[in-house]
Orotidine 5'-phosphate decarboxylase (Criibacterium bergeronii), 282 residues
Amino acid sequence: MIIDKLYEQVQKKGPLCVGLDTDLSYIPEFMKSQKNITEAVFEFNKNIIDLTKEFVAIYKPQIAYYEALGLDGLKAFKMTLDYLKQNNCLVVSDVKRSDIAATAKMYAKAFFDGEFESDFVTLNPYMGYDSLDPYFEYFEKKDKGIFVLVRTSNPGSKDIQLKQVGDEYLYQKIGQELTKIGKRFNGKYGYSRIGFVIGATHNAEAVDIRNRFSHTFFLVPGYGAQGATGKDARLLLNKDENGAIINSSRGIIAKSQNTQNQKEFDDKITELILKMKEDLNN
């Protein structure tokens, strides 16, 4: 089961997730020289993957960065997914889709059975739980899973997620309903194929969230460029030092843009991923 595979990757390598949110401005000039957009983006991603895969449990390409580049970008997205698969790397495509069931069925096919096939996708639950249903048929058929937005890392998340509903916040209510739905999808380590996106930037709530949803795997944004520390992010790990993947995107991939050659690039990315690993271990 895919959620068990993710658990085992975290157990083996630690909870690191690298976000491949590749903007052209992040790519060093020497890597862009005499290449078209597709080649430059894929070459950059390939280098990041090669340098970090020993330490990373899963990769998270954010599709908006590729869509913004048009067909050239989507070709690079496809090539990146293929390369991750060739290297036996797990991938969560960060697409944050939400739509009525008929349209959601097409999204599910695109990311679970099409050219953009991924192990997990991110979804938005605010159109209702029936908007998630079309993805479930792929859980067994294609061994897939989802991460649903519950308590996101952005400051504006409070506008909706912290609305009071009875004696609880809206995000707590949504998490509880998703937990009920997800029980039938539990793997051998006790985690459901329905995971939550929980930001590391809300450290005051982290312990309660972890205790409240102890059988749910978390995708944790907010570390690094958004201000959360390793200490903040670790609060969302479970007692088994597992149960969460902690993402860094710009904190890794945007810091090598001024490197002048391949060796400088390799040294910089390796330094950054080892620093993140050490920070999370501490």
Observations:
- The mean pLDDT is 95.
- Strands lie at 16-20, 58-61, 90-97, 120-123, 145-151, 164-165, 168-169, 194-198, 218-220, 244-248.
- The CA atoms of residues 162 and 168 lie 9 Å apart.
- The chain has one domain: 2-281.
